[in-house]
Design goal:
The protein is of the alpha+beta class. The chain contains 15 helices and 14 strands. The protein folds into three domains: 114 residues, Rossmann fold (3-Layer(aba) Sandwich), CATH 3.40.50.20; 107 residues, ATP-grasp fold, B domain (D-amino Acid Aminotransferase, Chain A, domain 1), CATH 3.30.470.20; 58 residues, 2-Layer Sandwich (Dna Ligase, domain 1), CATH 3.30.1490.20. Strand 13 and strand 14 form a beta hairpin. The two termini are 18 Å apart.
Length: 333
């Protein structure tokens, strides 16, 4: 198949997106597909640029000035390549790639793509919207508050709490807060960078993650961190966390976690792929933390690790996602 992989972009998750996209493109080529890599911020990537990305030697920051451009519109500069493709594979983490903007553009143009549509992406990207839908679906999620002041948090929740941007990803900006002084730092304008902050009750327990592919769950993973929480550093520095696939769980617990992961996937209207994150507390109660419509796709990311546990090579897994998306598009056309 002729595939355009979208990667990079200008969000704070650009580094992760470049790494994910380059590896997806490489994996698809290993399966015999004709692949172009397109960065909405900088344009088409040459093969030597992709190779440098795979080696980790290319600059991972956009050129000066591009942050003020509308990357979703820059995609249109390459409309001929997009229309010539059999399918587009978005691997744009954060920003326009994960909040539904790119998906809306592709839908408007009638171009098929892998992954959730505009609504599913928007709902899962906004953690407040996600949690409201989870509560409406009778799925447990920790108490939370969208707050613009410290007093709002203090009135609604008790320490410890987790503070994070309401629309962030890759664990960027997540902080475990145990006292008022630490909470005050989270509300520093430079720290917030104009974004809305969500605070939620910290639930101690085992951190579990479940990949959903099509309408099936992959083997459940457990994340054991060296620190207190699975933040950005833990996620992308291998020595900071152990990621165990499959997690050592009783059969009944495995069935429960897999079932609820599918319920979350469906409640948010997600499709093709997602990763659902949970805490299993000391009493055996399962709390959904969030859903990821476009999880990391490096060979070391959680979703590909779950796929490897299920017997897929990285290339086979990427191709599986293409096949699922193509079948869905043919069914709906």
């Amino acid at each position: 198949m002729r595939v355009v992989v979208l990667l990079g972009g200008d969000s704070e998750e650009r580094d992760v997106s470049l790494a994910s996209g380059a590896q997806v493109a490489n994996g698809l080529r290993s399966m015999g597909h004709d692949v172009l890599s397109l960065d909405p911020t900088c344009g088409l990537l040459e093969l030597d640029q992709e190779e440098n990305l795979l080696k980790g030697t290319i600059s991972q920051l956009p050129p000066v000035g591009v942050h003020n451009t509308d990357s979703s519109m820059r995609v249109l500069e390459h409309l001929s390549q997009l229309r010539a493709a059999d399918i587009v594979f978005p691997v744009l983490h954060g920003g326009i790639g994960e909040n539904g903007t790119i998906q809306a553009v592709l839908d408007f143009l009638g171009i098929p793509y892998v992954g959730s549509d505009m609504l599913g992406c928007a709902l899962s990207m906004n953690k407040d919207a996600t949690k409201r839908l989870l509560r409406a679906s009778n799925i447990f999620t920790p108490d939370w508050v969208l707050a613009s002041t410290i007093d709002e948090v203090m009135r609604a929740l008790s320490f410890p709490v987790i503070c994070k941007p309401v629309d962030g990803g890759s664990s960027v900006g997540i902080t475990l807060v145990t006292n008022e002084e630490a909470l005050r730092k989270c509300f520093d304008p430079e720290q917030m960078k104009g974004r809305t902050l969500m605070c939620e009750t910290f639930v101690p327990g085992r951190e579990l993650t479940v990949g959903v592919v099509g309408e099936e769950t992959l083997p459940i993973g457990e994340i054991i961190v060296s620190g207190e929480i699975f933040d950005y550093e833990c996620k992308y520095r291998p020595e900071m966390a152990d990621e165990i696939f499959p997690a050592e769980l009783d059969g009944s617990v495995t069935a429960m976690v897999s079932r609820i992961a599918l319920e979350v996937h469906r409640a948010l209207g997600l499709r093709d792929l997602s990763r659902i994150d949970f805490i299993l507390d000391r009493n055996g109660k399962l709390w959904c933390l969030e859903a990821n419509s476009l999880p990391g796709m490096t060979t070391n990311s959680l979703l590909p690790k779950a796929a490897e546990s299920a017997g897929f090579s990285f290339g086979e897994f990427c191709e599986r996602l293409l096949v699922i998306a193509m079948k869905r598009n043919k069914k709906n056309s």
